[in-house]
Write a structure and sequence with these properties.
Layout lengths: L14 E4 L1 H18 L2 E2 L9 H8 L6 E3 L2 H8 L5 E7 L5 H8 L3 E6 L2 H10 L4 E8 L7 E2 L3 H13 L3 E8 L10 H18 L6 E4 L2 H6 L8 E2 L9 H6 L9 E11 L2 E5 L2 H4 L4 E2 L5 E2 L1 E7 L2 E11 L3 E6 L9 E6 L2 H8 L2 E3 L5 E2 L6
Parallel strand pairs: 1-19, 2-10, 3-4, 4-5, 5-6, 6-7, 6-8, 8-9, 9-10
Antiparallel strand pairs: 1-11, 11-12, 11-18, 12-17, 13-14, 15-16, 15-18, 16-17, 19-20
Helix pairs in contact: 5-6
Length: 361
């Protein structure tokens, strides 16, 4: 995985590398967890946004996927994916595009309001599959899990419509990222979903859920029918901090040219436009944007923290003065999803082949 000696046409600018073998190992583990729990793995493709990387999932029996926009849904539909969930409350301004794509693939959308349901009922040109989004504690979108009357009203609106087909309840327990005990948070969210499945059994709901920390760490998926994590294909430092993965499981990294060195401080050509500004707490409560590393056999040795980002510059606080100008610093990102979005393309770390990304299309 390490390419610190890379001195070719890729070495003059930041490059985002992806390790196919590690990705496949991560996919295999998650697919196995779903199978053992009797759930269907419907992975969220917003992390990698790549047709090539998406094709690797097919080798593990994946047939259904999750995305976060209609443009992403079209992108993957063009590659032959024909069962796609757009996991964001339906954007009624895009109903024309939703209607168009629904004629080509099995498309499903999220609802968390009567207003959204009424808009679909008024403007859908064919029946659309819908999930009711449930807020199990993240407090971003979704109907609160204890708002039984509101859920009942929404289900009745869907049932009485001639334009919607109710599939079940969906939730993203994103608050697992914000706790020292993601397993307990996931379990609590899963129990809420199990209760709703029983409470509204007359509607025959499926239950779909699956943030990466919860899906990676929790042994019991309960009554979940579908598992929808996304970040697990790459993992990152944020996931490592939750205990969801080892450093060695992280399947993406940046290589950035070292352009200045002063003692234990190295500056790289690689800034916020490459990594994004996502950060996490490092030692002594100071925020970091990445970790410089090198491989030592099968293990990863941390060389220092990426402590500052401006537009094009990144500053690494080294454990010891190991870099000189002209070296390449290999850096694990805090958040692989946004780093991939910022870079817009990858190269596979062994073949060096260019891999696609939706952002570059």
């Amino acid at each position: 995985m390490e390419r610190s000696d890379l001195k070719d046409k890729y070495s003059g600018k930041p490059v985002l590398w992806v390790d196919e073998a590690k990705c496949r190992a991560n996919i295999a583990r998650m697919a196995d967890r779903a199978i053992k729990s009797g759930a269907v793995l419907r992975p969220h493709f917003k992390t990698h946004q790549s047709k090539i990387i998406g094709s690797w999932f097919r080798d593990y029996g994946i047939q259904k996927i999750t995305v976060s926009s209609i443009s992403m849904a079209r992108y993957f539909a063009d590659d032959g994916w024909d069962d796609i969930l757009i996991a964001i409350p339906v954007n009624i301004l895009e109903l024309k595009e939703i209607n168009d794509l629904s004629r080509k693939v099995k498309l499903s959308v999220l609802l968390d309001s009567i207003e959204g349901a009424n808009a679909i009922d008024a403007r859908a040109e064919a029946r659309i599959d819908v999930w009711v989004e449930i807020d199990t504690g993240q407090h971003r979108t979704g109907v609160p899990s204890d708002a039984f009357d509101e859920i009942e009203s929404l289900l009745k609106t869907i049932r009485h419509s001639g334009k919607m087909n109710f599939l079940g309840f969906y939730s993203h327990a994103g608050h697992t990222y914000l706790t020292a005990d993601p397993q307990s948070v996931f379990l609590n969210a899963r129990n809420q979903m199990d209760f709703l499945k029983e409470q509204f059994s007359a509607y025959h709901p499926l239950c779909s859920m699956g943030d990466t920390p919860g899906a990676s760490l929790s042994g019991d998926l309960g009554g979940l029918d579908q598992l929808t994590p996304g970040n697990f294909v790459f993992y990152d430092l944020m996931q490592w901090a939750t205990g969801s993965c080892r450093l060695e499981d992280i399947a993406v990294y940046m290589s950035c040219p070292v352009i200045s060195v002063r003692g234990n401080k190295a500056v790289v050509y690689g800034g916020a436009i490459h990594f994004s500004k996502d950060q996490m707490a490092g030692k002594e409560g100071k925020n970091i944007y990445g970790v410089a590393f090198k491989n030592e056999g099968e293990k990863i040795k941390k060389q220092g923290n990426l402590i500052s980002l401006s537009q094009e510059h990144g500053v690494i606080n080294l454990n010891e003065p190991t870099f000189k100008i002209g070296d390449l610093a290999n850096i694990l990102p805090v958040h692989s999803c946004l780093t991939a979005q910022a870079m817009g393309k990858y190269r596979e770390s062994n073949s060096r082949k260019l891999l696609d990304h939706l952002a570059s299309y």
